[in-house]
Amino acid sequence: MDLIDLFLSLLFLLPLLHLLRAAYDRRRCYILDYECYKPGDERKLSTKFSGEIIRRNKQLGLYEYKFLLKTIVSSGIGEETYAPQMVFDGREASATLADGLVEMDEFFLESVGALLKRTGVGPAEIDLLVVNISMLSTAPSLSSRIINLYKMRDDVKVYNLAGMGCSASLIAVNVVENVFRCRKDSVALVVTSESLSPNWYMGKDRSKMLANCLFRTGGCAVILTNKAELADRAMFRLKTLVRTHHGASDDAYSCCEQKEDADGFVGVHLGKNLPKAATRAFVDNLKEIAPRILPVREILRFLAAKNLRRLRRRWSKDPAVAGRPAAINFKTGVDHFCLHTGGKAVIDAIGQSLGLSEHDVEPARMTLHRFGNTSASSLWYVLAYMEAKRRLKKGDKVFMISFGAGFKCNSCVWEVVRDLKGDNVWKGFINGYPKKNLANPFMEKFGWLHEQDDSFSLPDDYQIPD
After folding, report:
1. What is 119-173 written as a DSSP string?
2. Residue-wise pLDDT tens for the chain (466 aa)?
3. Cys staple from 414: which of 38, 138, 223, 236, with CB 3.0 to 4.6 Å?
4. How far is C-alpha 192 from the chain's CA centre?
């Protein structure tokens, strides 16, 4: 090949290389850093104080007390989770919009401020802001509140998500990812939390009382970017993200729903059909994301095992001959599992479905015990646990799985860009984890209620002793 042919070949290849580079740039989405919120120790919800809160609800009788006792004991939540200030003021029955805004401002000022300071990213450098607080919708919006607090630019692109439930943070990441495809060299701020103050349930409907037992104060701020020059500073790179929504199904739609009870108290109804709806969404989500994250050899092995079992069932009338159903080994494609802390039963079910070890589900269990279910921000506390335990090494892949009202299952995979040091919300007490004993002391203090006959009734002025 002479020099003219080589020159012509390069001229032909340059546009192609430019297109490939542009396609790569559109897919680039890095996490520069994140900050989980930890309220002060004065906001910890001890067993004794939890009993006082239950005692203050005059709607409850012995039957409801026993239900709460059983729920709290089996929830997987410990004594160091956090509640909003209005609970400690004894005003959960009369919480106002102002209480919700105070709760959000505490988180906005502490976590967002700390994140901006640590990364060196100024408010004026934020090109995109996505806020997801499901249960508090205000005017102006909470995203506008953040813009006002930090005096961001006039042309910042803003998305305010509400009512999206516990899986909303991955929806926010997906919004950022899509915007990055058409906006080069951008910086995004994702703010995810939940407002408990105006949503504390004061009735006696058991399906709505569960939320008070599981949900706790928390939040997370995340800075993402698609700037190539920041790639070396980044912590994670987004590999793929899949969203599954079964809202067209009446059963899935109604299994997790905010509504009034018969007495007019507003709460979040968690129906008995929720596990079935979650399973269906989970399976459909896995079907879509599995081919994207698993090696070809694992997919071929699974298909072969599935077809072999089908043939065995056809050849024999004995179901036992077919053996166990074929299962995918997700550990062949990912290294760590970041599970939503929806509750002990949720963690157990996901772990069993994916064939995970106790080591794999440890981050979710310990996060639930220490921080409770902090709604959409839960995933980031689990991720922070892995980081604090120095589990995350360069090149590792982290599989995030979340569930939310709708009903939704959203998942994604992050690749660790560099070895992580673990200087985060778990700092100072990570050496005390994992804890061997996760038993809640409620049974020890209030177990006598569990032994009472259901026909027994409490007098109107009765109070549970400390």
Report:
1. HT--GGG--EEEEEETT---SS-HHHHHHHHHT--TT-EEEEE-S-GGGHHHHHH
2. 565 655 555 555 545 444 444 444 456 999 999 999 999 999 998 877 887 787 788 887 777 777 777 777 777 888 899 999 999 998 988 889 999 999 999 999 999 999 999 999 999 999 999 999 999 989 999 999 999 999 999 999 999 999 888 999 999 999 999 999 999 999 999 999 999 998 888 888 888 888 888 899 999 999 999 999 999 999 999 999 999 999 999 999 998 888 898 888 888 888 888 888 998 999 999 999 999 999 999 888 888 887 887 777 777 666 555 556 777 889 999 999 999 998 888 899 899 989 999 999 999 999 999 999 999 999 999 999 999 999 999 999 999 999 998 899 999 999 999 999 888 999 999 999 998 887 777 666 665 555 544 443 434 443 433 3
3. 236
4. 9
Please name the amino acid found at residue 189: L
Using alpha carbons only, give the angle 304, 307, 308 rounded to the nearest 5 degrees: 80
Cβ contact 439:272 at 8 Å: no
Give dist(CA 173, CA 398) in Å, integer. Answer: 15
Closest to 268 measured CA to CA, from 184, 211, 191? 211
Alpha helices in 355-436, H assignment, sequence order: 358-371, 378-388
User: Residue 180 to residues 128, 156, 231: CA-CA distances in angstroms?
Assistant: 9, 14, 14
Answer for the pair 188, 127: CB distance below 8 angstroms, yes or no.
yes
Strands (E), 273-375: 336-339
Does 3.40.47.10 match the CATH number of domain 27-294+333-419+430-451?
A: yes
User: Which of the residues are catalytic?
Assistant: 166, 245, 336, 340, 369, 373
Q: Hey, is 189 helix, strand or coil?
A: strand
The Cβ-side half-sphere exposure at 316, using a 13 Å CA radius, reads 11
Query: Measuring CA to CA, which residue among 25, 410, 54 is closest to residue 237?
Result: 25
Other beta carbons less than 10 A from residue 404's beta carbon:
26
Question: What's the maximum distance between 2 C-alpha atoms anywhere in the chain?
Answer: 101
